[in-house]
Amino acid sequence: MKNWILFLATAVIVFLLAYLAVNILDRKSEARFAYQPKVEIEGIEPRDSVWGLNFPRQYQSYMKTKDTTFHSMFNTSGHKDMLRAEPEMVILWAGYGFSKDYNSPKGHNHAISDINETLRTGAPMNAGEGPMPSTCWTCKSPDVPRLMKEMSVTEYYSQKFSDLGAEVINPIGCADCHNPETMKLTVTRPALIEAYEAMGKDINEASHQEMRSLVCAQCHVEYYFDKKKPGAENANYLTFPWRDGMDVESAEVYYDEAGFSDWTHPLSKTPMLKAQHPDYEIYKMGVHSKRGVSCADCHMPYQSEGGQKFTNHNIGSPLSNVENSCFVCHREKVDDLITDVYERQRKVKEGTSKLQRQIAMAHIEAAKAWELGATQDQMSTIQQGIRHAQWRWDYSVASHGAAFHAPLETSRIVTSATGIIQETRIELARLLADLGHNKPVEMPDFTSKDALQAYIGFDIEKNLAAKEDFLEQVVPKWLKEGKAREAKKEIKTVSIK
User: Fold this and answer.
1) Per-residue pLDDT at 29
2) In contact, 422 and 354? CB cutoff 8 Å
3) Spatial separation of the C-alpha atoms in residues 359 and 424, rounded to whole Å
4) CA 120: distance to chain centroid?
5) Distance between CA 125 and CA 178 in Å, rounded?
6) What's the Cα-to-Cα distance from 30 to each of 34, 39, 59, 178, 308, rounded to whole Å?
7) How many CB atoms lie within 10 A of CB 304?
8) What is the spatial distance between Cα 286 and Cα 293, in angstroms, rounded to a whole number?
9) Residue 399: exposed, middle, or buried by beta-carbon count in 10 A (0-12, 13-18, 19+)?
10) Which of 190, 285, 419, 463 is geometrically suited to a Cys-Cys bond with 409, CB 3.0 to 4.6 A?
């Protein structure tokens, strides 16, 4: 009986080992087949569908960035009117494009449609028209490095947004981050390379793990358009203010010393700064960066399929994929982890919400002071306080995920801005009293986006109608022309040996 048991046990073991061996061989075969190049990728190929022929798993996962159904407590992958959710922003950005339209960012696959649809880019019906320069395309498409190579970087920065509409039709994709010959991560935007040089660093010395964040840092950063760059005086030259450091104070000093402002506020007459999205800078101040965790580790976690380990290119919130992103390192219940994240975000949000109301009131109080005859000498320190407070507020809210990436640093920034604007409003109150105004300044309805846009004189209906004409008449022409150009480019197949 024992012999029969041993015989059966041995047979089972042999069967399992044989099955395992066959399975391993099948997976190796599948892996070789999956990564057998099918087409040649030459130069800067902006079409992700072409790359997808060679890298189907990565391409299929990237295409999932079209999905806009994910919602967290404060953010979404779909449409959210941020001005309606936070109406005070209309006052803070009065006179600047963001007071017209500011929606939550969607996935990378929507980059082209989002920038065409926003009111901020205007409604240019012809080339050479519109309020925005070509530089606004820079982070939206792999067509951009192609154009930079064809035109030169400075020439690219010297165009209007409407000049390149038919040239930039592919959303953020493979060629933005990968060398087509080696597939290694690469930097395709010169602004990042130049920022490293300004800091006395060589980006070519970055490790692979660092590159898993730096390819994101090409776009998810604070930047400005330098119109005084030697040799490029007619260009809106994309520049990162990293010369003296990446923290909020270093950028503030950089801009102050350069005498730079994004626009002049029509109410307070303050030369203002608009923070873009300093995601990388804030991330560098947080614990994940200090522990060597890259952007891709959380936003593009590895996964296995068919015997292949690959990077998931469905770039989005780690909260939509906690098991593969967070739980590589963390060991706790899903609900507990998400609750902890939301609690950090809620506390920072509480501070920024109170802060933005205070800054909005300061702009209106400053307008009252001007109305009553205040002089520039009387207003200079007040304007500086408004400028610095709003810069710090904007730095903390424009950085998507700041309350998670570096909650302590973000809270510090918000606290410093709150102190600045409180002192500024005290000085404003004293000035208003000196000018004969000894009662609170009348405020508009801060709960209504529509009321505040009317308050600053913005004609929303006129702008919406113009944008509709643009989307119906111009954008389809751009896409048709761009697709016709791409159709002429041959896709070369690779013979399987």
Assistant:
1) 42
2) no
3) 9
4) 16
5) 35
6) 6, 18, 17, 24, 9
7) 9
8) 10
9) buried
10) 285
d(CA 396, CA 424): 20
Place of tokens 């005084």: 228
pTM across the whole model: 0.91
The three-state DSSP-derived secondary structure of the chain is CHHHHHHHHHHHHHHHHHHHHHHHHHHHHHHHHHCCCCECCCCCCCCHHHHHHHCHHHHHHHHHHHCCCCECCCCECCCCEHHHHCCHHHHHCCCCHHHCCCECCCCHHHHHHHHHHCHHHCCCCCCCCCCCEHHHHCCCCCHHHHHHHHHCHHHHHCCEHHHHCCCCCCCCCHHHCECCCCCCECCCCHHHHHHHHHCCCCHHHCCHHHHHHHHHHCCCCCCEEECCCCCCCCCCEEECCCCCCCCHHHHHHHHHHHCCCCEECCCCCCEECCCCCCHHHHHHCCHHHHCCCCHHHHHCCEEEECCEEEECCCCCCHHHCHHHHHHHCCCCCHHHHHHHHHHHHHHHHHHHHHHHHHHHHHHHHHHHHHHCCCCHHHHHHHHHHHHHHHHHHHHHHHCCCHHHHCHHHHHHHHHHHHHHHHHHHHHHHHHHHHCCCCCCCCCCCCCCHHHHHHHCCCCHHHHHHHHHHHHHHCHHHHHHHHHHHHHCCCCCECCCC
Q: Are 464 and 119 in contact (CB under 8 A)?
A: yes
Structure tokens, 374: 């205040």
Structure tokens at 129: 């028209």
State the distance between the two ends of the chain, measured CA to CA, in whole angstroms.
55
> What is the reported pLDDT for 358?
98
pLDDT value of residue 326: 94
The count of residues in the chain is 497
Which of 303, 304, 286 shows the shortest CA–CA distance to 295?
A: 286
CA–CA dist 363, 267 (Å, integer): 6
CA 328 to CA 91: how far, in whole Å? Answer: 43
List average pLDDT for each run of 10 residues in the chain, which is 497 residues long: 56 50 42 69 94 95 94 85 97 98 92 97 97 97 97 97 98 96 95 97 96 97 96 95 96 98 98 97 96 96 86 94 92 92 95 98 98 98 98 95 94 98 98 97 97 97 98 98 95 78
Which residues have a Cβ under 8 Å from the Cβ of 121 and sit 6 or more positions away? 97, 115, 130, 131, 132, 136, 161
Q: Show Cβ contacts of residue 127 under 8 Å, excluding neighbours closer than 6 positions.
A: 160, 162, 163, 165
